[in-house]
Amino acid sequence: MRINGSCHCRNITFALDWQPDSETIPARVCSCSYCRMRGGAWTACPEGSLRVSIENSAHVSPYRFDTGTADFHVCTRCGDVPVVTSRIEGRLFAVVSVNAFDDFDRLRLARATSNVEGEHEDARLARRERNWIGDVVFVAEGG
């Protein structure tokens, strides 16, 4: 199943190939201070693949906080964060915002809260390796 998404102005778009097909998509409502303030709800399919396209990379700014092990890709034109990545031992992993899904039946989302506050860095990176998308490609389309 292919799930498309984007930031509000479509500067950052993504295509998530969800494998295998699923009737429901898990949505992790993160309780960290950053996500709590912005309504962050994320999903990943470890068996799937993700292609992220950026129309104008000059309008994308990475934001890091806490352990500095994840990049929140912020569109500076509209302020949305459709993708978060983490580089672990040279490999890029990602989650996508379910709030950024285009033309998707929101009733198919199975929302659950997640608390990562106080998680040690080693445990955090191991969780990402297990649960995040591990086949990630970024394509910059413009200057």
Question: What are the defining features of this structure?
Answer:
single chain; 143 residues; mainly beta; Metal Binding Protein, Guanine Nucleotide Exchange Factor, Chain A; seven-stranded mixed β-sheet; four-stranded mixed β-sheet; 2 helices; 11 strands; globular
- Per DSSP, the total helix count is 2
- How many strand segments? 11
Oligomer class: single chain
Q: Proportion of β residues?
A: 35-45%
The strands making up the biggest β-sheet line up spatially as 6-7-8-9-4-3-10
**Number of domain units:** 1
Envelope shape: globular
What is the CATH-assigned architecture? Beta Complex
- Low-confidence spans: pLDDT under 50, at least 5 residues? none
The share of residues in helices is: 10-25%
Describe the structure.
By secondary structure, this protein is mainly beta. It has a single domain (2-140), classed as Metal Binding Protein, Guanine Nucleotide Exchange Factor, Chain A, CATH 2.170.150.70. Helices cover 12% and strands 41% of the residues. It has two helices and eleven strands. It has a seven-stranded mixed sheet, covered by helices on one side. Strands 1-2-5-11 form a four-stranded mixed sheet, with no helix packed on it. The longest helix has 11 residues, at 121-131. It is globular, with a radius of gyration of 14 Å.
